[in-house]
Design brief:
Elements lengths: L5 H11 L14 E8 L6 E8 L6 E9 L2 E9 L3 H8 L6 H13 L4 H5 L2
Antiparallel strand pairs: 1-2, 2-3, 3-4
Bound molecules: zinc ion (ZN).
The site of zinc ion has 8 residues, from loops.
Length: 119
Amino acid sequence: MKNLDLKKVLGIIGFILRCPICGFRNNLETMKVVDSEQVEGTPDARLVIHSDCQKCQGSVMFTIGVMGPEITSAAAVTDLTLADTQRLRDLDPITANDVLTIHKAVQKFKGDFKKAFKR
Ligand SMILES: [Zn+2]
């Protein structure tokens, strides 16, 4: 990620540092890059970042996309821990067939959901 405009990215991160749940001002150390991708031969890049609030323990995941002079960002409050995001990151995406399979299984299911989903 050597060509990425870090100044712009840090500007966005500085804006997002405030916890959307409690408003506490976090610092960069609470943010961990979960995934990053750079378009080869360009400064364009996408980052996925996870942050835990030091005050309320809430978590936020957000993406930062850099495409030429434009920077986009989207954030969402999540109950995923950093370990969850790292574990789930490498799984294949859910397909329409996966959803149909689960839908059919749930329709036929006659048991106790709490017991079925316990580890
Ligand atoms: Zn908070």
